[in-house]
């Protein structure tokens, strides 16, 4: 499947925005459906660390083990996970824009197996709507 991208402009500079993408206490304030967000092994987010995310999607509980595959504060964060035959790669780019920043999220789905391939278009539709709304909440949270 082709990746999808959404972006928002926020009133805060990249150094202020970036922690909102990785800090356990901040991410829950703008990401809908998150029931749990934990950096496995504790400590701050870093390249190679794993993040266990528990969320509710369309009424179903889902736990993802995401690996941080790119981590360059305050501009770049990328994670990947796999669940039920569906691989998800998500990347954030935070770039200066005037007095604030532009936050761009790109998500790529890879269906592995027949069931995942059949469900991927529906999953993508829900994910796109959710992630776009989440970025809107991030913009609001950062004023």
Q: How would you characterize the overall build of this protein?
A:
- About 30% of the residues lie in helices and about 45% in strands.
- The chain is built from four helices and seven strands.
- It has a seven-stranded antiparallel sheet with strand order 1-7-6-5-4-3-2, with helices on one face.
- It is globular, with a radius of gyration of 15 Å.
- The model has no long low-confidence stretch (mean pLDDT about 90).
Concise synopsis of the structure shown:
The protein has 143 residues and is α+β, with helices and mostly antiparallel strands. The protein has one domain: Alpha-D-Glucose-1,6-Bisphosphate, Chain A, domain 4, CATH 3.30.530.20.
Task: Supply database-style keywords.
single chain; 143 residues; alpha+beta; Alpha-D-Glucose-1,6-Bisphosphate, Chain A, domain 4; seven-stranded antiparallel beta sheet; 46% strand; globular
SSE layout:
Elements: E1 4-10, H1 14-17, H2 19-22, H3 24-27, E2 34-39, E3 50-57, E4 60-72, E5 76-83, E6 86-97, E7 100-111, H4 114-141
Antiparallel strand pairs: 1-7, 2-3, 3-4, 4-5, 5-6, 6-7
